[in-house]
Specification:
By secondary structure, the protein is mainly alpha-helical. Helix content is 46%, strand content 0%. The protein contains five helices and no strands. The relative contact order is 0.11.
Length: 97
């Protein structure tokens, strides 16, 4: 018997299917996982979700596996918070700046 999936789930994309089957709609209460979803959703603005899922490993690297204790300290410290982001977002320079 084939599993029923939402229409938005692209069955040709293994990453999407895995996300749908293992995460979508499943209540999660782990603070690190919720922090991960907050960050991923924030970066997703204006992009497709699959774009974010494809870069998820780079996000995990940049955010210390979404360890909320480590990240909370890092972003409240004197750091500019940009370490590791070059793999996940490209900074566009406008007007030659």
């Amino acid at each position: 018997m084939e599993k029923t999936r939402c229409k938005w789930c692209n069955l040709d994309n293994e990453l999407y299917v895995k996300y749908h089957d293992e995460e979508w709609g499943i209540p999660k209460f782990d603070n690190d996982y919720l922090f991960e979803m907050l960050i991923l959703e924030s970066f997703q603005a204006g992009l497709s979700w699959i774009t974010i899922l494809k870069k998820r490993d780079a996000f995990r690297e940049a955010f210390d596996d979404f360890n909320i204790e480590k990240e909370g300290f890092r972003f409240s410290s004197a750091s500019d918070g940009k370490e590791g982001f070059e793999k996940i977002v490209a900074e566009r320079k406008e007007n030659g700046n």
